[in-house]
Each structure stands twice: as structure tokens, then as C-alpha cells.
Amino acid sequence: MSERAKSMRERMLAGELYIADDPELARDSARAQRLTHRINTTDPTDHARIRELFTELLGGYGVGSEIRPPFRCDYGYQTVVGARTFANWGLVSLDVATVTIGDDVQIGPNVQLLTATHPIEAGPRRDKWEAAEPIVVGDNVWLGGGVIVCPGVTIGPNTVVGAGSVVTRDLPADVVAVGSPARVVRRLG
Predict the structure, then answer these.
(1) Catalytic entry in 9, 72, 118, 183
(2) Which residues have CB under 8 Å from 117's CB, separation 6+?
(3) What is the CA radius of gyration of the chain?
(4) What is the rounded CA–CA span in Å between residue 139 and residue 60?
(5) What is the DSSP letter of 54?
(6) Count of the separate structural domains present in the chain
(7) Considering the domain boundaries, does residue 3 fall inside one?
(8) Strands (E), the chain
(9) Whole-model pTM above 0.90?
């Protein structure tokens, strides 16, 4: 007996190639767009309403955390934010794969967390296939303004990433990393 064919959502969640304009994924994306529109147009002093909307949108939103709008994401349910985390204006979480942000994280303005990948070969890319790799930001990390974190990257606890850096590979705990690509320039502690 043959195995049931996976839906595009199941393929996406499993980290396999999928087609993003699948109707089920389009509904999920539209939900996220509606909620982010509400978040981004709510009175910025109405912290309770903004928190309520983030709690509805995200896969988890820790106690005492704050994300300042505007905020953008693909699906929302793939992003989990720990407790007491702060993200300044303009956070983008392309959460095709999971984006896990730990406790006590500080995120500067205009940071991009990008899980989406595309085939190198022209044919599959033209046929709209894509995939993703998860991102993990450890506890007590500080991402400076304009940092870009690429697919599949894990940033260890207590690490500082300098403004404008592009993180293309894992960073260990307790370091300062800067540049494009980001390189460790100092150990902490």
C-alpha cells in the first residue's frame, strides 16, 4: 500500500521542497498578513492589544516580551519568542522553517531572520520550488541593528552580533561576531 501524498504544508513543515503558492499555505500566509496588518496599524501605546495580537499570531510569545511594530512574517506560527525578549522596529521573520528566539534576547531595528532557501538549479527554481532551514537564537543574545541571519543558523547563548553583520553559519556561545560574513572577533566572560 502506498503512503498518502504529503500536502505542501506537511512538506514545508518537514523541511522538504514545497511550492509556496499552494492554496493551504496561501491561507496560512493570508492569516499572518491580516494579523501583522492589525499589529502594524494598532495604536503603538496600546501594549495590551499588541500583545494579544502577537499571542494569536506567533507559535509562542513569552511573558514580558515586546516586539515593536512594524513586524513582518510569512506564517507566524513558525516563530517562537521566549520571555523578556525585546525586538525594536522592523523585525522580519521569514518563518518558513521554525524561528526560535530565546529568553532575554535584544534585537535591534531592521533585523532579518531568513529561513527560506531556493534551489541553485534554474529549473526547480523556475518551477517555484523552495525549502527552508530553521534558525535558533539562544538566550541573552544581542543582535545589533540591521543584522541578517541566514537559513540554518544557530547563535549560541550570550553572543553579541554587531550591527549590519550577515550571519551565514553557526556562532558559538559567549562571543562577539561582526562583519559580512560574521566572524568571531572576541570571546566573552
Answers:
(1) 118
(2) 130, 131, 132, 133, 151
(3) 17
(4) 15
(5) H
(6) 1
(7) no
(8) 18-19, 60-61, 66-67, 71-73, 79-81, 86-87, 91-94, 99-101, 106-107, 112-114, 116-117, 129-132, 135-137, 142-143, 148-149, 154-155, 160-161, 166-167, 175-178, 183-187
(9) yes
Going from the C-alpha of 121 to that of each of 124, 126, 128, the distances in angstroms are: 6, 9, 11
Assign 143 to helix, strand or coil. strand
Question: Are 78 and 95 spatial neighbours (Cβ–Cβ below 8 Å)?
Answer: yes
37 is catalytic: no
> For residue 129, what are the β-bridge partners?
19
Domain at 172, CATH number? 2.160.10.10
Report which of 63, 59, 55, 69 is spatially closest to residue 82, judged by C-alpha positions: 63
For residue 2, being part of any structural domain is answered with no
Domain interval for residue 151: 8-187
| CA-closest candidate to residue 12, choices 135, 131, 133 | 131
- 55 within some domain: yes
What are the tens digits of pLDDT across the range 34-68? 999 999 999 999 999 999 999 999 999 999 999 99
pLDDT tens per residue across span 91-125: 999 999 999 999 999 999 999 999 999 999 999 99
